[in-house]
Amino acid sequence: MTDKAATAETRQDRFERGMKVLTEIDGPAGQRVIDSLADISPELGHQVVAWGFGDIYQRPGLAPRDRQLVTLGMLTALGGCEPQLEVHINAALNVGLAPEEIIEALLHSAVYCGMPKAVNATFAAKRVFAERGLLPVKTR
Amino acid sequence: MTDKAATAETRQDRFERGMKVLTEIDGPAGQRVIDSLADISPELGHQVVAWGFGDIYQRPGLAPRDRQLVTLGMLTALGGCEPQLEVHINAALNVGLAPEEIIEALLHSAVYCGMPKAVNATFAAKRVFAERGLLPVKTR
Amino acid sequence: MTDKAATAETRQDRFERGMKVLTEIDGPAGQRVIDSLADISPELGHQVVAWGFGDIYQRPGLAPRDRQLVTLGMLTALGGCEPQLEVHINAALNVGLAPEEIIEALLHSAVYCGMPKAVNATFAAKRVFAERGLLPVKTR
Amino acid sequence: MTDKAATAETRQDRFERGMKVLTEIDGPAGQRVIDSLADISPELGHQVVAWGFGDIYQRPGLAPRDRQLVTLGMLTALGGCEPQLEVHINAALNVGLAPEEIIEALLHSAVYCGMPKAVNATFAAKRVFAERGLLPVKTR
Amino acid sequence: MTDKAATAETRQDRFERGMKVLTEIDGPAGQRVIDSLADISPELGHQVVAWGFGDIYQRPGLAPRDRQLVTLGMLTALGGCEPQLEVHINAALNVGLAPEEIIEALLHSAVYCGMPKAVNATFAAKRVFAERGLLPVKTR
Amino acid sequence: MTDKAATAETRQDRFERGMKVLTEIDGPAGQRVIDSLADISPELGHQVVAWGFGDIYQRPGLAPRDRQLVTLGMLTALGGCEPQLEVHINAALNVGLAPEEIIEALLHSAVYCGMPKAVNATFAAKRVFAERGLLPVKTR
Predict the structure, then answer these.
(1) Under a CB-based contact definition with an 8 Å cutoff, are residues B114 and E112 in contact?
(2) Where would I find the Carboxymuconolactone decarboxylase-like domain in this sequence (chains A, B, C, D, E, F) (predicted)?
């Protein structure tokens, strides 16, 4: 990272770097969140993109697929983040997690977060999978 | 407070004292919550008013504007309190916080509560600001 | 429990044991949750029934009525579990808690969880009570 | 409650009413919390006693034993409230819950709050039971 | 799973099946938790092993390494679960996650859970890594 | 912000900008957290400084004192963040909040977060105030 550390970037450079990552991972769902923030908190939209995606997501230390696994765990545990779960379940599919792996991860969450949060997250997955024609899921 | 401490009050006195504070701060939004509780838990409505507003809010040790700032932070962090956030974002505007300050406080919350809760709270602000004709917000 | 511990059960046996408890306590509301999980995570539905109800709920150490009281406290505190609160407020009524006791328990939650979560849970009770013709509640 | 509602009380009256309830339920553990607050936030100590115990706990709509059951559920679900769990596990024993019922309630919490919070709460119970010579607990 | 579903198991069979998984993943740290529960809630210890590990962890749908990633995300987001984080950071190392990947996952959590929870989880990792002679971590 | 947006900065520039803000606000307590992260997650330390302080805290839209008020509310509500509360209660004193205002804000939190979290946060304040010779606090 020495080279990158030495590179001077403008605010706009960082935003563009993040936008590229966001588009790869989240597709239009991420873009819609940024657009919805435009008239109320453009700076929050900027930070989601420039910091969340440009600074953190793009780091090479953890594969995009693994980042989504951790993220699904966090959003399930936090509670009340169903809209974000839908975005990230879409993202998880985009970066190569199988539908069965996502459902298994949410089943696994019952052990740590309890049944209600596991059920809420699983219903968020159902909405996303329905939209993408992935129902019924074949689990064992 | 010595004098007040010595003053004997009925349950109704305390309620009326709280109702005066509630009306000043929240306007009709607070009243609607109390009304909705009337047929299911009038005592909870009473305690919100008599204790929350009559005993705590009216204390002189922290300005109403400052109480709203702390409250916005708490409701954002708790999660799942979007209806209460709408009431208190309205209240925050009523007691003198600028729309830009509210949005900045919610941006600030991203550092402590993470992006999903900051985004959820900002969308609650968007609904309130839309209703009051305050969009788009001019932030830097 | 020595006898039970020695009894070999199949996965299906455990499910059926749980289903019996679930039906007694939750009635059709519990069944609907299991049905909704069928095409997305049948295993989560299985575990809610076989483990949650078959292994835990049916244990003799705590009366069904007491289990619902603890559960109402937990769901209120967790936040964002309004659908589960509705199921369990129904269940609480089914196992013998009076409407007034449920409302009192949710009022009590204000001391420990704060007013917003107490209000959210009370509105979940209002939806259930309305459906069952139990409004207005007569509290003191 | 009409009569009580009509009774004028001073701040001190309400505190004394609450203190009587606190002492009955929590014994010295509750008193220690109030004492620890004396030099930092005597008003918070006052409100815990006058409001939490004087206004809410003493209400007749839910038996003290039942209030402790709900409270154990809430404190387990909130997380990070181990000191309060210890106070209330003591209180639960004082108002007639059997050690086995408390442990069963915390086992039950695993279904709703997940294993980590159930384990944390159970270790809080272990500390209290150890102090009161109640180990080992005979559960089935 | 048809075959397994048809196999009748005793309570003890399920426990032994789980114990095998627990030992493979968590090593002595998991065993210590079960031992500590023996005199206060042996049933909770049984359920952690027989259900958590025997029923859920051993399922083939998600690799052990992936289960730990999801789990680290959940425990970080829940908050107040530092003892469990230490057990599972140990487990994560045992099933093949590199120290750098664990640290990167916890950095990633800052985006979703906020800085305080990310810092708390990172300090839990520091305690585990120190014990295992893994400090300093070489991140980019 | 047009000018700043156009300014190209290196990673190091952003860190230094944040470090200046961190030192002004938190003094040595903030520095200690960064130091403790050096051998386990230097990148997390970098992001706390460069992003949290350099990008967010330094923004002119909300006064430093107001940022601390919101932050105290968030940390109290999150729970399990007592170390961060101590850092930020120190910071709150550094940027001009009176001890009485801090205590009043934490009393206020009882209404929204419940008594246990309010008490936990107040005891964090007690530790900080004791260290700075600010006990007893004179509240009304």
Answers:
(1) yes
(2) 42-126
Q: Which of C1, C61, C69 is closest, CB to CB, to D104?
A: C61
Verify whether the Cβ–Cβ distance C116 to B38 is below 8 Å. no
Q: How many other CB atoms sit within 10 Å of the CB of residue D63?
A: 13
Q: Which of E1, E42, E52 is nearest to E22 (CA)?
A: E52
Q: Give the residue numbers in E contacting F (CB under 8 Å), as ranges.
A: 79-80, 103, 106-107, 110, 114-120, 122-123, 125-126, 129, 135-137, 139-140
Q: Which domains does chain C have, with CATH numbers?
A: 10-59 (no CATH), 63-133 (1.20.1290.10)
Looking at every residue in chain A, the average pLDDT score rounds to 93
Of the candidate ranges A3-7, A80-84, A115-119, the one whose mean pLDDT is the lowest? A3-7
Quick one: which of D84, D25, D87, D13 has its CA closest to D57? D25
CA distance C81 to E100: 35
Nearest CA in chain E to D80: E80
With contacts defined as CB-CB under 8 Å, which chain C residues touch E11?
1, 4-7
Q: Would you give per-residue pLDDT tens digits along chain B (140 residues)? A: 445 567 899 999 999 999 999 999 988 888 888 999 999 999 999 999 999 999 999 999 999 999 999 999 999 999 999 999 999 999 999 999 999 999 999 999 999 999 999 999 999 999 999 999 999 998 66
Question: Residues A11-56: pLDDT tens digits?
Answer: 999 999 999 999 999 888 888 889 999 999 999 999 999 999 999 9
Q: Do E122 and F44 touch (CB under 8 A)?
A: yes
Looking at chain F, which residue has its C-alpha nearest residue E136? F39
Phi and psi (nearest 5°) for C23?
-65, -40
Query: Which residues in chain F have their CB less than 8 angstroms from residue D81's CB?
Result: 79, 116-117, 120
Q: Residue C11 in contact with residue C50, Cβ under 8 Å? A: yes
State residue D127 phi and psi, 5-degree precision. Answer: -65, -45
pTM of the model: 0.96
